[in-house]
User: What shape does this take?
Amino acid sequence: MTNYTLSLAWRLFRHETKRGELTIILLAIILSVASVLSLSLFSERLKYALTEKSAEFIAADRVLGSNKPIDIAWIDKAQEMGLNTAHQTYARSMVFANENMDLVDLRAADTGYPLKGSVKVADEPFTQGIVIDRLPTSGEAWIESQLFQTLGIIVGDNIEVGDKIFRVSKVLTEVPDAGFSVFGGDPKVLISKIDLAATKVEGPGSRIDYSYFFTGENGDLEDYYDWLEPQLDNEIHDWDSIEDDESGIGRAVGRAGQYFLLASLLAIVLAAVSIAVAAQRYSMRHYDPVAIMKTLGAPKKMVQQIYLLQILFITALGITIGVIFGFIIQHLVVAAIAGKVDVSIDVWHWRPLIISIFTGSVCAVLFSLYPLMKLFSVSPLRVLRRDLGANLSSRLIQFVASGGAIFLLMWAYSQNIKVSAILFISGIILVVSLLGVTFGLIWVGRKLGQGKMGAWQLAWARIHRRAMDNSVQLISFAVTIMLLLIVLVMRNDMVQQWQNQLPQDTPNYFLVNISQAQQPNLQQHFVTNQVEIDKFYPVIRGRFVAVNDEKVRTAVSKEDPDEQSNGRDGLGREANLTWSNTLQKGSEVIAGKWLGDNNNSDTAAQRPYEVSIEEGIAQRMQLGLGDKLTFNIGSEIVELNVTSIRNVNWQSMQPNFFFVIEPRALKSFIPTYISSFNLPTERKSDITQLMQPFANVTLIDVDARINQLRNIVDQVSMAVEFILILVLAAGALVLIAQVQASMDERQQELAILRTLGAKGRLIRASVVFEFIIIGVVAGAMAAAANEFSLYMLQTQVFQMPASLHLEYWIIAPLAGALVVGILGALGCWRLLSLNTSQLLRQMV
Amino acid sequence: MTPKTMIKTNGISKTVTTTQGQLQILKPISFEVKAGESIAIVGASGSGKSTLLSLLAGLDEVSEGEIYIDGQAMQNMDEEQRAQLRGAKVGFIFQSFMLVQSLTALENIMLPAEIAGRDDAKKRALDILELVGLDHRASHYPNQLSGGEQQRVAIARAFISDPKILFADEPTGNLDAANSDKIEKLLFELNQNSHTTLVLVTHDPVLAGKCQRQLHMQAGELKEVFTSSSNEQAALKVG
Assistant: This one.
């Protein structure tokens, strides 16, 4: 390359920038870099903030669960690698006081606990807890409210745990890692780790779990895991982070993460679309200079170098300005949501910066490829014959280059081939259909563009004549609208689903151990106190004895659904059994038939008793339809035949059961009942009065946990909302850029119409009609493509039920017509505000 | 000493493919132009003047026949070689000026010299800008200049690389009478001073009359050749 080439390229670039000739392509690059940067930076920060927040739910960044104490060298190594550590031992143990006893979830924590989140305590049972920054000292125990009730004690009394006596000094209201399996959980007792040995609950046959908590930099945590992993035994150890958490929180955060990813991907595609449109226009505007240079003897290589350098300069400038804008937007957004979502801008994330620069460069280069090749093919003869365009007719290279670029970017960014492929294939289907529609429009245009020249005829005639240009425009409008629809609908569906999971009246208290005699009184008492109480579920405790006559020792209770029970073996415990003829809300039979649906009542007496089992327990215990389960209830043996398997929504915050038995089997047993109710947090002080007449009924308070859950869901929803606004803003800007670009292409025609004396109103109306037609078609196509992409995304990526969005079939074309029409009118208004000679002069 | 032949055509024709089949837009033409000579190609719209010009200037390829520019056979050259030839020996002036809109007057003039890799591009451009009387407009962009001024810049650009042949396509076609006169004067002056061979396409009989010879085109055929001095039909080989 000669110095002349470089200097000429630089001069052309400088002058064209100054004269505003590069504005459109520069804006497209700036827009894409700024939107990708701000969006991915913001979503990275949000994800970080949410992970931080949700880390509180496991009390750390990572937790190593184990059913044996681990080698102390592992902890030393973690500390050596700069991680903070803490430790807690869990035991199921009986506590005694005043001749009462109860089975509790005993937790012995060392001083570092909790590494994330906080412990809350109160001085009276069933009152609001406050954060405490210390743990129980030796000889001290903090116990949950319901245990005060069951043991009949008050703060200051003593309890016996194993061989040691503790003084109950506080009411434990909240621990961060409480888990969300609320119903039926044993009340928690928190003691200091140094007292654990004295209780002697650790011993042969005892049920002890160990949790080791770690916090630190992500990289350090990953390095530590890399070191640790080869030494872990799947049977004993379990390495967890909040992302692995299958609770509502883990899923909500995971899904939000995917949403952010999707939004960023869509921003990349939007960026690509706007750059593609701008590059096309850039190339067309440079046909003349290329023809002139060639005429004056410039070799092809020189022309190529000049324009490749130009693109390079434009890209570099666009990226620089884009990055600056990206940061500004990001700071503005963070400032705007301060107080609603805790997003810190102190932590620096490199990935978004790299991604945005990469996106800007790849888009600018690959999308300019075909327009540049066209530009290079311009014949010098154009200096004499102005109508001559480019000589390149094959569009294959354009489709391959731009399609490849988009797919590569999406894949590189998401590292998720499924999401990328779904969006990409939807895009291709959309583009192909739009090409079909364009040819339809050419045909319609030919029919409608005839006759007396009114605004409609002019609009149709123009659509017909500019069919190929319009097809590019139509595709870019439709892709933009489709992407906006996807982001909008996904957000609506997702937030809706989260809210459905936790409606306002979600029960925050559970009542256990209600006797049959108490049931009507209790119900009446609650009604009198204006508290709505849920349905009463009968419960009978039964010991699980055998499967198909083969004896098992298996733990089955909802409070430990994730237990590592190896196959059917485990520790013998009782299960809560209920009976019902109706399937519970939120449950669904996934195999077999619901109780009683198999036979008619005539043969009922002869057939074995039926049981419906929960999907998870069926898998864990390798149970299937037709298996015979044996329970020991009271002193009787009851045999049950598995006739259905149910899917249960454990997040529904309602009493749920692993085993639902047909009522006939349990009619001779006397059950207790459980129920739940919702009491607003501000009425918390009414609890004592509410429960006072029913001393034996155990109250389980999950209000704090529900509030924690609701809080995080609110934050995630809010974050999703902001991402939506950002994408919508980026989309709107892309639309404006597209209309602006196409307006310039119409300038020549407007100038001619103006010169020929056409009235401004006619011209304006014809342009607006043209844009309205394009907007309607683009909107309708976008709605169709949106439906397809959403179906694929919801079922394949977000694991949500698919939904139809018929309303968007009307909204999208209307919005398309409105937005594109208004933008067209505005662009046209600008052009028509110039006088004819200015218009003609600008055409040069 | 007889001047050497600068342009020689031997039965050149141009055929294009249309939807209705092959169409010959230029019938076989043969003629010669001597170095320093000025010729005008005249004829009605669509007579094939511009097509002939495009072939002579190497902007388009001949379908049949031979063209020699300063002794070099152009019909055997590819686009790159023709560009090189244009850069070295040819200058252009167009009806619509064809200036690069994003370069200043000075930079437009420098362009051919820069393309040719000449170190003195700027100095020469400034000299020639002064010669065409636009030194005070050096940093103006084309759309800040009047039509006459733009054409003067185009003339300056055409002469900067000392072309052996100057092709001018309706150089005054977009100008008013006063400006046309100025441009014509400048064009012929520079042409004479630099002994350039001038090939001019025009509708204008007055302008054509200022050339030494006129080639009259009609429906793609070279019909007659006049020598302007006697205004008589010359007995030159036509066809």
Q: What stands out?
A: Confidence is low (pLDDT under 50) at residues 230-239 of chain B. Residues 177-193 of chain B form the longest helix (17 residues). Chain B has one domain: 5-233.
